[in-house]
Every structure is written in C-alpha cells, then in structure tokens.
Amino acid sequence: MSSQELIDAYVGGQISRRTLIRRLVAGGISFAAAVSYAHLLAPEAEAACYDEDPYYPCVHLRILSSDLEQVVDKKHLVVRVRSARKARLRLRAWAKENGNEVPIGSRYVQFDHPGKMKVRIPLNDLDPLRHRNRARVIVRALWEATDHVSHVVGVDEKTLT
Fold it and tell me: Do residues 66 and 95 both lie within one domain?
C-alpha cells in the first residue's frame, strides 16, 4: 500500500491513527513525520464523516475479537466503537448461518462527547457459533433519530476462526 493509499484509508476511517503511523514508519517515513501527518490529517478524517449527511452521527466500528472458541467461552464479542459526536447507540451482533443473519447479542452505549471505547457485547444466543471452525459475524450500530426511527450508522463484519 502506497503512502497516499494509507492516507486515503486513514481519512476514510478504514484504518486507525496507530496503524497509519506504523505503516508510514515501516515505509521509510520518520516517526516524527508520521505522527505529524496523523495529527494534521485528523480534522480531515472527522470531516470525511460529515460529507455524507451532518444529521447522522459519524460512527466507526471494528470487531476486535478474532478467536471463535474464546468468543463462545466468554460469551461476548469485543468491539471498538468511535463516535464523532454525542450519541446513544445500540450495538447489535449477528451471525451468518445458512445464508441468513441470526441475532446473537445486543448492547447500548452512550457517548457524551466525541471519542472511542472498547465494548463487550454480551451474546445471548451462542448456537450459531458453537461446533463450527469459523463463523461470520456482523455488528451494526443503530442510532435512534428524533422521529424514533432507528438508522444504521456503522457496520463491521469479520470471520472468526
């Protein structure tokens, strides 16, 4: 991935600040310069969220769990959630089973200001995950607007092995 592709991914919210810095340094850019790039591009990364529609909160999700057996044993899925503004979100976890999406867990999170947090989503239906070598999971962030309609404002998918 070129430096420009890394920057585009960071501004688009596809990679974290830490990942941007690590990859720029690995590509030969000094640590100080990489940190400066990340700092200078941070406002653009946030602005990229608002280009679509300033009415909805800008939310980025990343499923951190990767070990299927550990998810089943601990009965929760770990997700990093980032919101660009105050928001109350419902995180819903789903598993793909035979081409269908099956709900497996849910949790509410509250952002009183912009930020990020690591969240454990408790799983109440482990059947779609048990006795499998791999499972595809999806997490959606839902935001309820003033019209009491829920809108999907963030999604991440991952195959657990």
Answer: yes
